[in-house]
Write a structure and sequence with these properties.
single chain; alpha+beta; three-stranded antiparallel β-sheet; 5 helices; 44% strand; elongated
């Protein structure tokens, strides 16, 4: 009698663990998953004075892909995704605490199901980000006034948001990259 009870209890523990294998697809609503693909022109180093002169920092291109959650199922145009916005948040990697304000950018891209779309010259930073500390300090004073450093190391985290044509909210997983900001 003890063996069947032990086996049953083991199965109760194992079932939730196995169901976690699909956590990426189970967390998002709808029938598609969005991913960020290839990035071209993402700067590793940014000049603060050039960013002010150019009214921001831009990514040459990036690809957003849409995949059906059930690759063997039927797909249709109602699974196409309209991307409406993206956001970029910034975190310091050095000892400083001041960060640029979050960038929230409205866009319109249509990503067909099981296909991709390309965003060209998407802002990574606009004037609101480069005219605020710590980047404005680098452009004005040649160093971060908070830390005294001539280099500010930032992690930028980007995430896209949209809806399928059937109305399901979808978002990409956040993706991060590191940039050195110099005077």
């Amino acid at each position: 009698m003890r063996r069947p009870i032990a086996t049953f209890l083991s199965l109760l523990v194992l079932i939730p663990a196995l169901s976690g294998c699909r956590s990426r697809t189970d967390r998002s609503t709808g029938t598609v998953v969005l991913t960020l693909g290839e990035f071209n022109g993402v700067p590793n180093t940014i000049s603060a004075t050039t960013a002010v002169k150019n009214a921001g920092v831009f990514i040459t291109s990036l690809i957003i892909r849409s995949f059906s959650k059930d690759p063997t199922g039927t797909t249709g145009t109602l699974q196409n995704v309209e991307i409406t916005s993206y956001q970029v948040t910034y975190h310091r990697r050095d000892t400083g605490t001041r960060t640029p304000p979050t960038l929230i950018e409205s866009v319109f891209l249509l990503v067909p199901v099981n296909s991709q779309a390309t965003l060209n010259n998407g802002p990574l930073m606009r004037l609101d980000q480069v005219l605020n500390p710590p980047i404005s300090d680098l452009a004005k004073f040649g160093k971060d006034q908070e830390t005294g450093s001539a280099v500010v190391v930032l992690d930028a985290t980007m995430q896209f948001f949209g809806r399928t044509l059937s109305g399901d909210a979808v978002a990409t997983a956040p993706i991060s990259f590191t940039m050195d900001v110099t005077p």
